[in-house]
Design brief:
The complex is a heterodimer of chains A (about 110) and B (about 110).
Chain A lengths: L3 E4 L2 E4 L5 E7 L5 E7 L5 E7 L6 E2 L6 E5 L5 E5 L8 E8 L9 E2 L3 E5 L1
Parallel strand pairs in A: 2-11
Antiparallel strand pairs in A: 1-3, 3-8, 4-5, 4-9, 5-6, 7-8, 9-10, 9-11
Chain B lengths: L2 E3 L4 E5 L4 E3 L2 E3 L4 E8 L5 E7 L5 E3 L5 E5 L4 E6 L8 E9 L7 E2 L3 E6 L1
Parallel strand pairs in B: 2-12
Antiparallel strand pairs in B: 1-4, 3-9, 5-6, 5-10, 7-8, 8-9, 10-11, 10-12
Classes of the chains: A mainly beta (about 110), B mainly beta (about 110).
């Protein structure tokens, strides 16, 4: 049982390049989330997927797109990376989004945009 | 709207002493409240949550938290701190009708000295 896995662990991009961050969970959870963590700012929600086939914007969605590929996988795409997107990105999952379910987090992707 | 505040960036305690990490919240309805811990270069791990019922919640690793509705607080406590408790702690809140959208505090760094 691997929990939530993310790839890659580290990435360096140049401004304007694109990339996709991958996330998968093996807990049969319905809901999945993407956050970014910046120093002194806690975690901010980028997008979430309450269930397979649905996605919704979070607090900071600009510059990102997501795909809920199936129940297990939820990817985050940066179409044209900007230095302001330098951050640590965390994927998380929970049994549902509407109840009091806690979230399970992946190990993170450290992204640097030059 | 919902928000959470962790008023202390840093908390320092001696090993064996009790510890408290403070959290206050603001929601317009009933809250779901969570504490997570993050060790260096790792994802967040769930510690405990308040959904309803008993105001004193017990969680992992000997931690507990007390929900105080009148003071809108959910402080994390442990009777006897360990050096291994040193980490970054996050409080999170979600209004029970705000599916999917948890708000995290900025985090409090706990340092336990031998």
């Amino acid at each position: 049982n691997a929990g939530v896995t993310q790839t890659p662990k580290f990435q360096v991009l140049k401004t304007g390049q694109s990339m996709t961050l991958q996330c998968a969970q093996d807990m049969n959870h319905n809901s999945m989330y993407w956050y970014r963590q910046d120093p002194g700012m806690g975690l901010r929600l980028i997008y979430y997927s309450a269930s397979e086939g649905t996605t919704d914007k979070g607090e900071v969605p600009n510059g990102y797109n997501v795909s809920r590929l199936n129940k297990r996988e939820f990817s985050l795409r940066l179409e044209s990376a900007a230095p302001s997107q330098t951050s640590v990105y965390f994927c998380a999952s929970s049994e549902s989004s509407g109840g009091g379910d806690e979230q399970f987090f992946g190990p993170g992707t450290r992204l640097t945009v030059l | 709207a919902q928000s959470v505040a962790q008023p202390e960036d840093q908390v320092n305690v001696a090993e064996g002493n009790p510890l408290t990490v403070k959290c206050t919240y603001s929601v317009s309805g009933n809250p779901y409240l969570f504490w997570y811990v993050q060790y260096p270069n790792r994802g967040l791990q769930f510690l405990l949550k308040y959904i309803t019922g008993d105001n004193l919640v017990k969680g992992s690793y000997g931690f507990e938290a007390e929900f105080n509705k009148s003071q809108t607080s959910f402080h994390l406590k442990k009777p006897s701190a360990l050096v291994s408790d040193s980490a970054l702690y996050f409080c999170a809140v979600r209004q029970n009708t705000n599916a999917g959208k948890s708000t995290f505090g900025d985090g409090t760094t706990l340092t336990v000295k031998p």
